[in-house]
Structures are given as structure tokens and as C-alpha cells.
Amino acid sequence: MTKKVLMTLLEDKKFKSIHEVLSVYNPVDLAEVLSQLDAQDLALVYRMIEKEKAAEVFAYMDNDQRQELLDTFTTEEVTYILDSMSADDAVDFLEDMPANVVTHLLEQVDGETRAAINQLLKYPEDSAGSIMTVEFIELKAGMTVRQALDKIRTVGIDSETVYTCYVVDRHKLTGIVTAKDLMLSADDTKIADIMTDKFLSVRTTDDQEFVANQFRKYGLIAIPVLDSEGCIVGIVTFDDAIDVLTEETTEDMHRMAALTGENEESYLKTSVFQHAKSRIIWLMILMFSATITGSIITRYENAFAAVPLLVSFIPMLMDTGGNCGSQSSTLVIRGLAVGELQFSDTLKVIWKEFRVAALVSVALAVANGVRIYLMYHSARMAVVIAASLVLTVVVAKLVGCLLPIAAKKCRLDPAIMASPLITTIVDTCSIVIYFRIATVVFAI
Amino acid sequence: MTKKVLMTLLEDKKFKSIHEVLSVYNPVDLAEVLSQLDAQDLALVYRMIEKEKAAEVFAYMDNDQRQELLDTFTTEEVTYILDSMSADDAVDFLEDMPANVVTHLLEQVDGETRAAINQLLKYPEDSAGSIMTVEFIELKAGMTVRQALDKIRTVGIDSETVYTCYVVDRHKLTGIVTAKDLMLSADDTKIADIMTDKFLSVRTTDDQEFVANQFRKYGLIAIPVLDSEGCIVGIVTFDDAIDVLTEETTEDMHRMAALTGENEESYLKTSVFQHAKSRIIWLMILMFSATITGSIITRYENAFAAVPLLVSFIPMLMDTGGNCGSQSSTLVIRGLAVGELQFSDTLKVIWKEFRVAALVSVALAVANGVRIYLMYHSARMAVVIAASLVLTVVVAKLVGCLLPIAAKKCRLDPAIMASPLITTIVDTCSIVIYFRIATVVFAI
After folding, report:
1. pLDDT value of residue B1
2. Which residues lie below 8 Å from residue B340, measured CB to CB, with a gap of 6+?
3. Quick one: closest CA in A to B326, which residue?
């Protein structure tokens, strides 16, 4: 459904058709359609969505639009929406609202919702506690399957949270039961007989990236979240894990491209000023760092005054060094992120990069050496470039693989040790190597 | 469990303890432990894992080790393993084996398994058909809940595939029923009454990245895969979607760092020669492209002979241009990958990047202009650098945002239009801009 159809129907006041058209769409797609409307139309159309679905659509909209809608809502509407959202979605939404709005909203929801939301709001951002949902099925080992099913029916929560049920003894998690076990067992089977005590769990304080990686590694559908006493306080489901993986990957990619600021809004929703802010810091730092390379060049003024051709190979050396470094750092950063590489692999990585660098650099040096000899008929220049290339590539590969590992060891995000920073560091090295070799070979 | 403990137990022939220790671990972790053993110990320890679990562990091992184990297997063992693996795991495994081994293995499994595997092997790599599993629960609308549960019990397949059941009429998919609906409905309820006909689906030929993005967007647990006639032929489950997302992201990151070759092995498992091969192609291309920049510099020999200081700002200009370009290209590439940006947003992106470039470039130009004036007391040099920076940043941002969008439009992977290529292109522009401005200002 394009915006156009919707707008035409709206102009013609064909409200019944709009209602029917809207009922065909699923909540995710509806939120996308609504995102194209201005505040006034949005408020109008939103009210034509059936009530239950409207709450779900609200969860998928972006913050600007939610704020716009919120301004037009009655108290009853706000209460209904917040009560219908799952607690973790409500928290995501509230975290981006001004504090006074949050207080005001929380006053309007029922006690149980408020308690759940408040509990989640107190966990540090990006922790397992902040992404978990507090809605899960709690069973006792002594229950029968029939009692368990009755309990699920009464609680009546989202279907993605019932695929695994949690067997609890005085708040301590003692086992898990899958929906499959419940479906296929006789009604009078005891939960104790079908539960398994082999399960994975995470702590409320665990980093969300660690949690998401457990899903990646073990193919889980949900994982229980325990507090410091081993009591179950919530669960993280696979769909939240997918969101975290996407978010963390985007963050890594941004860091690897010298962007700061954890911006959860989409590219188009981010203001020009915000974009500029997230880019300027590293650009400044790297720009001033690059002047070090410049001042080294100045020291070799005599060299390129004597052999002006020397200057023309600077871009090629700098770029090749930067590219080699960023290849290595990207491989290592990604390897660390998905858990394929550990600190204990450092020596293996160095040895591998060294051999790769040897192979690659010789190939590059030969190709370029031959080209230069043929073009400029200068064996000396060919030797200078070939030798500089070999050394630059080796240094670049080693710097590129070592810095991310070192960052990880220092509990920094390895992703900041990516292309831009590596390039700047390798530039300096390659210029020093180049002019050192040149001054010797040309005896300047 | 460290390798050490295992090796000690093995030396002391404490097989019973090993068996007990192994039974504590889950298959994923066991595969990790086994990966540290050599071929002989591996064959020995693997046989101490209980039979059913052993098949699962096999699915999580890497290809080298599977090949090692395979060599020691009896025909019965091979048959058992292949029959126990889900068809899509078996296909993943077979795709990496030599053709004669595949033929030999397929002769040994039962007819049903062979048919399932053969069906999957015929879909193009990276298509929905190649990642789907053919094991799913097929129901009829006329069945009762009790009959449905009986069917699930008889089929007895992996639990991640029973959370959604598929209602089929002459192979056409007519509706879906969730495990929750089955659990909570009375035994004599008709499936037709609890099924929903609103469901998402994909085609066998759809790209795996598209399929995975459906999971990301809609938070699905599984999605049915239909053939060209609308008949259901398999399903993709969330755990496979997470694997695809990880694989596609890694591929994007590698492409963005000028690495070629779709290597599914981990960093450490990839041979030095393979590593070198995947790096050399782009390094060669980019190295020779960078010589264009070099030859442009040669043309301005007079300029830096007259003002040698000019050379020392080359690295700073090149790096800043490269960094600006890679910031923009990364934002756009990621935006396109997660579906946040479309081709239709091109004008909005250009306008946004232009304004960001204006803000950022002025800040950089002022900072550097002032520094140069204070350090070298040359107003002319300050003006040349400031003006070059502004133009370079604007060009870099525009090239950086446009090339990935253009690649997408030409059905190329936008990820190749990343930092390395953008840097090389922007280098040339920045050098031309710089020397043009310098020759005018210094009247060389």
C-alpha cells in the first residue's frame, strides 16, 4: 500500500475502506506505512487500526512518531498501549523519552506494569537485564502437564515466550521444559519427569553482545537470565538476540569507519548536526596525527629535491600500507567479535600474518618493481620501491593484527583499531621506511 | 574442560571417567573440545560419546575433522550419522566433500534421507532452498488437535521445527498453527478453527540474505519456503537465519576491507596461501590505481620544487579525504544491508551528506588553517590547506555515499564500494584539488 492510496482514501473520507485495508497488513508493515504520514494524518489513521493491533504497531514505530502520537493520546489510550506492550518494548520506548514524560506515563499504567518497567529501567544499558523480558512461564517440578498448560492459558502471554518454560524452586531455576515436551506428554505426567536440568543461562549484568553470541553459538530459542543469587528474573528471546546482533554489528562497522556515538536512529532520521558530531572527533584526531607523517616528509626535503620522482610514489605506498593493515585488522576484529579468535591465539595470528605478508608483499614488490624498471629505466628506483613495499606490507599486517588484539586485552572495543587508525600509523612507518631506503640507495 | 584433563584421563586409560565427563557437555561445547585433539585421539574420544549425541557433535565439527573421523568410520557409523543429522546439516557437510566421497556416502544412507539430501543439493548456493530444512510438520485443516499432536509424536523431529505447524491442502500451504495454539486448545478442536491464513513466506530461489532480513524485520521463529507453484517444500528456522546474518555480515566486512573470496572457514583454519589469495587481487588493483595519483603529482613537480612544504601536507589531505569517504560509504552500505535505505532515498542522502560535509569540512579547515598560520606564519599556505580540505571533504562525502547506491542499482554488492576503493578515488581528486589551488595561490 503506497502512501498515495492511503491519502486519496483519506481525502475522500472513505474511512471504512481504510479500516479494511489496514486490517490486512501486519504490524511491522503498518508501522512502515504510517512512518510516511505527517502528524495530523498519523493521528487520524492510527485510530482506524483495530485496538489490539494498534498497540503492537506502536511498538514498531520510531520515537519521533511515537512522541507525535503521544501528544494526541488520551490518558486511557496511553494506559492501554503501555499495558499491552511487553515490558521490554515499553522500556525501550521510555528510555528515549524525557524524564518528566516517563514519570507522567508511569503514573498512568497499572501497578504490575509499572513494577515490571521500573525493574528493567534499573539495569545498565546494553546488559542482559536491560534486554530481557520479565514475562515467562514459571512452573513447579511437582505440577502435572495439565496444570502447566492451565497456567500457560491463564498467563496468556506472547507466543514467543512460551516455547520454553522454566521450572523454579523458591525462585531458583532448577530446570527447563520445552513446549514440545508439554505437547507430547500425557496430561498427568509430572513436570519433574520431563524437565531437563541441563540448560544455559546468563547473568543480568552480562553484556548484551555476550548474550547474543550464546544464541549464535548454541542456536537457542531463549535463555534464562539469573540474578546474583541464581534466581530467574527474566528471559531473553531469539528475536531480541537478532536485534542485538544487528545493533552490535552496526556499532562495530561504524567504529571501524571512525564514527563515534551510539546512534540507534536510522541514517535518515539522524539530524545533520548529529551526523557531523559523530564524524568530527576522529577526523580531527586522525588529521592531526597525519601531520606527523607530513613533518617526517619535510625532514627529507633534500631527498625529493634531488630525486623529485620520489614524491610520486608516496600515495601508492601509503594506500597499499593502509589497505594491507585494514585487511588484517578487519579479519582479526571480526574473528574476535564472533568468538573465533581469543587472546591466546595471538602468536598463531602473528605467525600467520607474517607468512601472508611475505607472500603478498613479494608479489606486489615484483609487479611494481618490474613496472617501474620498464617505465623509468631506473633499477635503483625499482629496488627502492620494491624494498619499501615489502617492509611496509609486513609492518602493516603486523600492526593491523596486533592492535585489535591488544585493544581487546585492555577491555577496549577492538573495532576502534580499524582501517582509519591503522592507516595513520602505517603511513608514518611507510614514509620512514621509504625515505630511509631511498637515501641509502640514492646516496643522497 | 581443558584438553589437558582429557589427555591425562586418556593416557591413564580412565575411559569411564571420560565417558562421564563427556556426557556433561552439550554438543556445541564438545565439538569445541574435540577440535583440539589430533586425528588418533579424536577417533578414540569420539567413540566414547553416547551415540545420539555423537551425531549432533559431528554436525558442529569443522570439515577437516569430519574428514578425519570419516576415514575411521565403519559403514554403519556413517549411515547412522547421516541419517541422524537434519537434511540441511547433512547438505552443508556434503557440499564441502569431494564428489566421489558424496556419491559413496549417499549410497549408504536410507532412501528417504537420500531423497531429502538430493533435493537440497540441487538448489543454488545462498538461496532459500539451500538453507531450508525439509523436515516440518504438515497438517490438514480437517484434523483435530489430538490428531495433530499424534502426528507430531510420530514424526518426532527436532524441537526447533515444531513451534509452527503448516496446514497443507494438496501441497499448497493454506495456513499455519503455532505450538501455543495446539497446547492451549481442546483435543477435539479442528485445526481449521485455530489456524491463521496470514503468514509470510519466501520462494526457494530467494536470496538467503533476503530471507534472513525477514527474520530480522518481523521477529519470526520460522518461515515456510514455497516453490514456484506455491507448494511448501521446506522451512527456514531462526537459528539458520542467525547463521546467515552472521555469514553475510562477515562477508560484507571482508568486502569492505578489500578481501575477496567467500571463505567460510575461520581465520585460523584458512591456509596462508588462501589468505594471500583473497588479499592480493584488490591490493594489486588498488596499488596500480594509486599510481595515477602519483603521476598527477609528477605533473606538479615545479610546484613542490618552488614550495617544498607543499609535499608535507599530502598525507594529511589524503588520509582526511579517505576517512571522510569511508565514513559516508560505511553508513550507506550498512543502511542498504539492513534495508533502512533504498535507491529512492538517493536525493535525500546526497543532500544530507552535502550539509554534513559542509559542517565537518569548515571545522577541519579552520582548525588546520589556524595551526598552519601559527606554525609557519604563512597565510597563503593556511588558505591553500583550508580550501583544499573543504573541497576534498565535500567530494569525499559525495563519492562515499553515491558509489554504494550506484553499485546496488547495478545489482553489485554495495560493500565493494568501501574504504579502500573510495580512498583511492578520493586521493586522486584531493591531489588535483590541492595542486590546482596551490598553483593559483602561490602563482607558481
Report:
1. 56
2. A266, A267, A268
3. A257
CA atoms lying within 13 Å on the CB side of residue B17: 11
Query: Please, are residues A427 and A293 in contact by the beta-carbon 8 Å criterion?
Result: yes
Listed in sequence order, the residues at least 6 apart from B355 whose beta carbon sits closer than 8 Å to its beta carbon are: A272
Q: For chain B, list residues with pLDDT below 50.
A: none
Closest-approach residue (CA) in chain B for A243: B216
Of residues B180, B295, B340, nearest to A162 (C-beta) = B180
B119: contact with A, CB 8 A cutoff: no
Alpha-carbon distance of B139 to B176, in angstroms, equals 9
Residues 198-217 of A with CB under 8 A from B: 198, 200, 215-217
Q: The whole model's pTM is what? A: 0.81
Whether B178 contacts chain A with CB within 8 A:
yes
B346 touches B261 (CB < 8 A) = no
For chain B, what percent of residues have pLDDT higher than 90? 37
Alpha carbons A79 and A77: distance in angstroms, whole number: 5
What residues of chain A lie within 8 A of the CB of B338, using their CB? 246, 250
Tens digits of per-residue pLDDT, B110-140? Answer: 777 777 777 777 788 888 988 888 888 899 9
Nearest CB to B323: which of A286, A348, A371? A286
The size of the A-B interface in CB pairs under 8 A is 337
Residue of A nearest to B427 (CA): A315
In angstroms, the Cα distances linking A187 to A147, A150, B158, B172 are 8, 11, 22, 33
CB atoms A180 and B198 under 8 Å? no
Secondary structure element (H or E) that encloses residue B236, with its range: strand B232-237
What strands lie across the sheet with B202-203, from one edge to the other? B202-203, B222-226, B232-237
Smallest Cα–Cα separation from B68: which of B76, B58, B81, B83?
A: B58
- pLDDT tens, A380-402? 999 999 999 999 999 999 999 99
A152 in contact with chain B, both atoms CB, cutoff 8 A = yes
